[in-house]
Design brief:
This protein has a domain of about 45 residues: Homeodomain-like (Arc Repressor Mutant, subunit A, Orthogonal Bundle), CATH 1.10.10.60. Helix 2 packs across helix 3 and helix 3 crosses helix 4. The protein has about 70 residues and is an all-alpha fold.
Length: about 70
């Protein structure tokens, strides 16, 4: 995957979050980062599909039930 060089890209914002997670006192870096990214992804895909969970799940490659559990 290529990370865009644009400083205003969503990945740049997420990169800032990850940088904060590298703090030596943080013990759940991976799980917290995955949850954060998943929230952003699910929200964007749902918005893009007009809130239609079935359509959003299809675009994500998961079942509607899985999507509902994640929400």
């Amino acid at each position: 995957m290529t990370v865009p060089a644009d400083a205003d890209s969503p990945l740049s914002a997420f990169d800032g979050y990850i940088q904060g997670q590298i703090d030596p006192g943080t013990v759940s870096r991976y799980a917290d980062s995955v949850v954060c990214l998943e929230r952003i992804l699910l929200s964007r895909v749902l918005d893009h599909n007009g809130g239609k969970q079935s359509r959003a799940a299809q675009r994500l490659g998961i079942t509607r039930g899985s999507l509902r559990n994640k929400l």
